[in-house]
Model the fold of this input.
Amino acid sequence: MTTGVLVVEGYAQRGPGDNQYLRSRIKASLVRDYLLAKFSLTPQTTGVMALGRDSAGSPNGEVWDGVALAIFGDNNAAKERGRK
Done:
């Protein structure tokens, strides 16, 4: 990814609130580490966000226990690449 930011969101449903936060952060961190190694991503533009059990907007409107990827990019840069 030449421009933009990738955020790995972590979700966890089990346990008390503080454990949900820690579990979701661990999940997101493991996936981030894998993506950095596998795809040679830039660590400065690849982050994690622990969201605990807050899974609003999840697939099918159900609770989410795992990770999701959010990409924030420069739409103009993508358009320019498409013209070449």
About this structure: The mean pLDDT is 87. DSSP finds two helices and three strands in the chain. Strands lie at 5-10, 46-50, 67-72. The two ends are 17 Å apart (CA to CA).
